[in-house]
Write a structure and sequence with these properties.
Elements lengths: L8 H23 L3 E3 L2 E4 L6 E4 L12 E3 L1 H31 L1
Antiparallel strand pairs: 1-2, 2-3, 3-4
């Protein structure tokens, strides 16, 4: 028995849109230009949420030369979520108008 169909459509819609927003955030972060702030390189679109140190010490782990800002990541996901919802609602509205004409 498929339990995914038993969940409310709003929950499924939000879940799938958030997954798409997260995927787009990763893809946009890969293709968008990096920000160069002193000794750090920043990654993220529209706000920088992942920082990498340019010059590290060879004795330390590479994980100590990186920093993640989760608040900015959540803010980026929220903006992408709103953009995707707006695009889907406008597309549905245009399809409804096209079918009525």
């Amino acid at each position: 028995m498929n339990t995914e169909n038993q969940k409310p459509w709003l929950y499924r819609s939000v879940k799938s849109t958030l997954c798409l927003a997260f995927f787009l955030e990763i893809v946009l972060s890969y293709f968008m230009p990096f920000s160069d702030e002193g000794n750090q390189i920043g990654i993220g679109f529209p706000y920088t949420y992942f920082y990498i140190q340019k010059q590290g010490v060879l004795d330390t782990s590479p994980f100590f030369s990186t920093a993640l800002n989760p608040l900015r990541l959540i803010l980026n996901l929220f903006f992408l979520y709103l953009l995707l919802k707006f695009l889907s609602w406008s597309w549905c509205f245009l399809e409804l108008n096209r079918k009525q004409n």
